[in-house]
Protein 1
Amino acid sequence: MAYARNLEILRINVMEDEQKIVIGDRVLRREDLFQGEERARRERAKLPFEEKIEILVHLQRLAYGWGRKRDVIIWEI
Amino acid sequence: MKNAIRVMNELKEKGLIKDYAIGGAIAALRWTEPFFTQDLDVFIILEEEADERGFIVLSPIYEYLKERGHVWKGHWIMMEGIPVDIFPADPLEKEAVAEAEEIEYEGVKTKVLTPEYLIALFLRAGRDKDWRKIQMLLEQCEIDSERLQRILSQYGLCEKFRDFEDKRYGR
């Protein structure tokens, strides 16, 4: 019983791995999307420090306004 | 933030502290993608370690800041619109401050802890949010593995790092 269930989970995982996603003329796998996201994160890590602090202040504004976290202090930079 | 850094530099120039460096989330953010945080953590090395009773005395620093209009808000001291937490450095933090990278923020000089020391400090703190930052540092910036290993073994953090790797990466 457990074996059959595990086999089914494996089958679904393999299907998900093989699932193709079409964006315009590009055909991607889920894995490609995840790798792309990881690449983008490493790129963002290379932004100048000053730019990152500006983004942080935007995040603080977002938390205060949209997130309604009224105890968030928005930095004066 | 530039003005808060200027205030810290002023403390150093006035001889109230020997040295300082930015740590915590803001230091991590120097090396990773931007993420939300609230405060600026600063590790300081004092001119005098402790008084005759063995107490670490921060009063002259806070008096100086208060005189210049920097007020308390909860556990933070507000420096030019930035909530700052000031920590007197322990041995690991002192080494981290000494080895911190000198940078310029909008033309103002400051020091930021390097990823290897940040990993050690986050590992020691060991909260969920600290582990997330370790993961970001490991995945998004270059780590000097030998340096990290040296710090971890010197400060007895190897076991904690193995535990982190086991739980986060299933190694």
Note: Chain A has a mean pLDDT of 84.
Protein 2
Amino acid sequence: MNTKKLSLPLAVLMGIALIVVLFPVFWISMTAIKPPTDWNASPAIWVPSEPTIINFLTLFDPEALGAYGVGGVSQAATKAVYGSILAAMVATALSVAIGLFSAIGISRYGNNSKATPLIILSGRMFPPAAIAVPFVIMFSNVGLIDSYTGLIAIYVAVTLPFSTWMLKSFVDDLPREIEEAAMIDGRSRLSAHLTVTIPLIKGGLFATTMFIFILNWSEFMFALVLSYSNVSTIPVQLAKYVTATAGTLYGVQAALAVFAMVPLVIVGYHIQSHLARAMTFGAIKQ
Amino acid sequence: MLPRSSAPTTEAQTIGTPLPSRRGLGVKGLTRLLTLPGQIVSLMVLVVPLLVALYMSFTDWSPTRGTLFDATFVGFENYSELLVYDKRFVYSILRTLLISVVCLSLEFSLGLGLAVLFLREFRGKSLLFSAFLTPMMILPVVVGYTFWMLFQTNGPINQMIEFVFGAQATLEWFRSAPCAVTAVIVTEVWHWTPLFFLILLSGLNAIPENPVRAAVILGASPRQVFWRIILPMLKPVIIVAFVIRSMEIIKLFDEVFMLTRGGPGSATETISLYIYKLAFNDFQLAYGAAAAFIVLVGSLLLIHLLLTPVRNQIMETGHR
């Protein structure tokens, strides 16, 4: 093992960077366990003297804060949590499944047009607010507005370039000889891909699924403009708390933020070796 | 690419040549089957709305005027109105560009510095690596909300300023334009420096050792090695990082929405926020669509310029 200590100035530099990176995470976590009296204290309280889980309980039971004499939480976050889980999971499964077939198609039989990546990229560049406009119009005509079906359809389309390109880079890494051998053994092309290609990129498939889940779970703007009363997601609910209560519910909001953040950080650490590939459409492999 | 001597047929050596099989679907049928679902989704959910938006941008349609087909065709009126008379639109573009340039320069410098530190071995390296990646895994909305709390007048950032510089140095972050823009930039830089760090570090790790060794043997100073050898070899990776980040930061919305809603006044109103307000607060949908297409054409040109010097290298890595 080649482990050394950093020289003192570098260690100090590293320490400062670490504090800067972790401080906001520390702050939101501390706010989530502050009792209502500490939420907006002046000067701000860094570490609550009496930590509590009341904020997390309030997410699912609006009356819970009554014990502290604080009312006015109009809405539980239950629907938003349910909505986020439903939309993110279904959209991720569909996006990865469709992306997987496209990836095999492009990698093994594609014409390798140099324009394709640029077309995909330009799709990513269009401001979502503008794509949302025709969606709102079309969806209100066919009754898909304020429905999970509509939201999921958009999520699948928006994440499809990521899942296709990331999976394509994993299929590209696989030597073609393995599939050829299966075909020479008498398998059809499709069956060779289903029984040989897909099992061999299992790791990549898992990383892609997790990454697409992160994207879907984080999405905000489409959910904001396409949801009224039936549909809600955690990011929309978080924004609503800010408007509805003019910032008086710090602790509850922070609890929801932590609730939304924890699964992503866990998932993110698991796939960190694939993140560079994911964020660059497979252009950079780690 | 390495030559493959063991390949059964010579044709199979080039990518894109059909794989050999006598059973099942032919190559054409299979290709169609595999790529069809993706094409249908992209067509229905991306191309069709884009075309609708494009048509809409040439009309004066708004939801109060019946269906889209009843709308009057106005030609380029929306476009000329936006570019010539709409100061708020032009300022939102300039503002977004300014925020982008400042953020990307800071993110690049900090990310590169951090990546260089991570080239050496030290105790706890992998733990620190994970810790430094944390911000980019957090939802943009949560990042925006967290920094909104940090920048409160009685929040911890002002507390620290008071501790170091005294009470008269504290700021009302969301009340003045320069402070609010600074808050947005700090938030963005905190959120996305890890991406630069990650991409640049994997680029640095992929640089072959021989040219570096040769330069050291020939007497190059560490500074010369960095500027003359390492940085030029890192260029394609740097450009990939900039292209990816430019695409995202041009659409900057979630964090600003949570932090300032574009305020005070329109001091932090980005392009996306302005289009959002046009379409969903003022219901000027046709006008908003025209604004979006101006932005799309502009950003395509920008990315094209950025990509030109390294197009071949990037396309090769993307297509390997």
Note: The radius of gyration of chain A is 23 Å.
